[in-house]
Amino acid sequence: MGLKTREQYIESLRDGRVTYWDGERIDDITTHPRFRVPIEVAAQDYVNARGARSKIHSYTTDEGVAAHRVFQIPRTEEDLDARVELMHEMSIVGGVTGVMMALMSVKDAVAEVNPKYAENIERLYRYVRDNDLRAAEVITDPKGDRSKRAHEQEDPDLYVRIVKRTDEGIVVRGAKLHITAASLVHELVVMPTKGMRQDETDYAVSFSVPVNAPGVKIINRSFAPAELNAFDYPSSAHHSMPEGFVIFDDVFVPWDRVFLAGEVRLASVLAQSLGLWERTGGLVGSVASSKLFVGLAALVSEFQGKERDAHVQSMLAELICYHEMLKMGLDYALRHPERSPSGMIYPNILAVNSAKYYYAVNYHNAVRNLQDLAGGLVVTLPEEKDLRNPETGKYIRKYLSTKPNVDVETRMRVYNFIRDYTADAYGGWHLVVALQAGGGLAAQRLMMNRTFDMASARKMALAAAGAIPRHADEQKHAAE
């Protein structure tokens, strides 16, 4: 019970989970080189929870017990600010554990349909919190032929479904894709991928199972090889994280771990619950990465003596604007929060979706500007071994020199970071994730349309056109 140590977290992964990578079944992920960096990334959350910044990483529950702040349900703006501060430091494994906030945010709506399901959500939340576990958000089905609905597919398992109901629980079959850190968490929290109709009751299913539950199998993929030189790959060497292809091969789920089993009206409620917190996490990350882009662009321009050039100043201004707009969007979302019936406070939905959309649609332009300023050296720079070789290193230091105050090795490190972050291992992953994390662009457009005060905008437009009185006093005059 209570906060885990780094060592306890690593030991907890030795539980018989079935995991594959590069065609190999890995029986103990804690000793396999493929998982060395990912486990180190995840374990940092447990180290920090005990460290000097413990006030950011932990809080005291109503029962008076210390718990990781990732499980704190925000009740005040201060709680919300503390959670966002945590997001700046938390690993992506801690980030996906935000699925618990998604579940708790819809608990009231679930209770209206089936109080037992709401009790199950509360029970899982307390179990994960009190044991300092991590959970993955498991939502995206393969979907098969997108022109057909779940029950119309040639293979009925292309959406996760209930294949059997018993007095003890349900048996599920199917697969979920793009599950970040699936092999490194303790619980797989499964949500419907979208709303379901009455003829799709078997596909309206939500539950949580331990990663080592019989029938669960995870096939991993990462953007980075197992071993990378930190000089040449300064980002990927420290941030590699597997994406899981999670298979449910007739997995038994006890009723006390089920949150939905056929009640189709709840399918879309649960499916949409993940979006807000995942997009908030993405927005927090975007504020940091966009500021990093400004710094990198300034450095490469200064290295080359171009910092005063008009076109450089123009591109820097674009990158600064991108960062400031994202920062203001996040600040607005936090300063204008919303509240659930049970008292959970959460970021403004419209603001989060608008800012996340702005981040996603402009990310590729930001990358373009940075790469344009840096030039072709981003992808043609010699590697560290060539720098350290006395025969080749002298030429590299000679011909990569620019100004007396620019250290060649520092210049190489900055260029390597730009390549790795925008054009290589981590960069390729990030280009896709910027668009797809929290749902693609269409998901944000849908939420903006749903949450914007369209009635007020229509009324404003009619008043501007003279079709209705502009102000209340004019309306009163018209009535008289």
The gist of it:
The protein has 480 residues and is of the alpha+beta class. The protein has helices at 6-12, 36-49, 54-57, 77-89, 92-96, 99-105, 107-113, 115-130, 236-239, 267-303, 310-335, 349-374, 377-380, 384-388, 390-399, 408-422, 425-436, 441-451, 454-464, 472-479, and strands spanning 19-21, 24-26, 58-60, 66-68, 135-138, 161-165, 169-180, 187-190, 205-210, 216-221, 243-254, 258-261, 338-339, 345-346.
Structure write-up:
- The chain has 480 residues and is α+β, with helices and mostly antiparallel strands.
- It has a domain of 186 residues: Butyryl-CoA Dehydrogenase, subunit A, domain 3, CATH 1.20.140.
- Helix content is 50%, strand content 14%.
- It is built from 20 helices and 14 strands.
- The strands form four sheets. A six-stranded mixed beta sheet has the order 2-1-10-11-7-6. It has a four-stranded mixed beta sheet with strand order 5-8-9-12. Strands 3-4 form a two-stranded antiparallel sheet.
- Strand 13 and strand 14 form a beta hairpin.
- Helix 10 runs parallel beside helix 12 and helix 10 runs antiparallel to helix 16.
- It is globular.
Low-confidence stretches: none
The count of strands amounts to 14
At the fourth level of CATH, the homologous superfamily of the domain at 270-455 is Butyryl-CoA Dehydrogenase, subunit A, domain 3
The CATH C-level class name of the domain at 270-455: Mainly Alpha
Mind summarizing the main beta sheet?
Answer: 6 strands, mixed
| Multimeric state | single chain
Count of helical regions: 20
Q: Provide the spatial order of strands within the biggest beta sheet.
A: 2-1-10-11-7-6
Straight-line distance between termini? 70 Å
Q: Estimate the mean pLDDT confidence.
A: 92
Radius of gyration: 25 Å
Task: Quickly give the structural class.
Answer: alpha+beta
Helix content: 40-55%
CATH fold-level assignment of the domain at 270-455: Butyryl-CoA Dehydrogenase, subunit A, domain 3
Q: Roughly what fraction of the amino acids lie in strands?
A: 5-15%
CATH architecture of the domain at 270-455: Up-down Bundle
The shape, in one word, is globular
